[in-house]
Amino acid sequence: MWHRFRYALGHHIFRHEESPFNEKEALSIQSSATMIAHEIANPTHQIDPLFESLIHKKEVMAEMQKLTLDKSPGPDGVTNRMLRSGGAILHEVIATLWERQAQPSEWQKLLMQPIYRGAKKPKPDPASYRGIYLSSVLAKPFEGIIIKRLTF
User: Fold this and answer.
1) Are 110 and 74 in contact (CB under 8 A)?
2) Is residue 145 within 8 Å of 59, Cβ to Cβ?
3) Do residues 60 and 84 touch, judged by C-beta distance below 8 A?
4) What does the DSSP 8-state code read for residue 48?
5) In this structure, what is the dihedral angle of CA atoms 60, 149, 99, 48, given to the nearest 10 degrees?
6) Beta bridge partner(s), residue 54
7) Which of 93, 110, 91, 111 minimizes the C-alpha distance to 102?
8) Tens digit of pLDDT per residue, the chain (152 long)?
9) d(Cα 62, Cα 83) in Å, to the nearest integer?
10) Which of 3, 29, 46, 95 has minimal CB crowding within 10 Å?
């Protein structure tokens, strides 16, 4: 408690022989904090080679073949049939987004659709339904390429 009074009087608490504070340790902590603050202000991002290489048309086409044709569309109304007919234009769109490291905010939106569980359950009861989430079909090839690169 005595060191609080010495500090309040303007005396430096580290230099006192009975002070519980270690000046060398305090300076070490201060220099570490300064170095961390510098790293935060000037980050150096290491880009993984998996994400540095461009997307090839084969990757896009492989992901397109995985899409089931007769599935429900997401919030944007685009279906898998529409997407498959996109061809080279779709490859260009996905490649451009990849190069710019961008993902449209529309791809992050989901449409929740309640599905009735069965005839024996009461229809007015919310527990009689399960929810499925429909995402943008346009995002699926993009996400598939990312997953494939991360897992192989």
Assistant:
1) yes
2) yes
3) no
4) P
5) -170
6) none
7) 93
8) 445 554 455 455 556 666 655 666 666 766 777 777 777 777 666 666 777 788 888 888 888 888 888 888 878 888 888 888 877 787 788 888 888 877 888 888 888 889 998 888 888 888 899 988 888 888 888 888 888 888 87
9) 13
10) 46
Instruction: Tell me the C-alpha distance between 130 and 132, whole Å.
Output: 7
Q: What is the DSSP string of 5-34?
A: HHHHTT--SSSSTT-S--HHHHHHHHHHHH
Which of 84, 54, 52, 57 is closest to 68 using CA atoms?
A: 84
Could you give the CA distance from residue 62 to residue 71 in angstroms, rounded to a whole number?
18
**Domain range annotation of the chain:** 2-41, 49-151
pTM above 0.90, yes or no: no
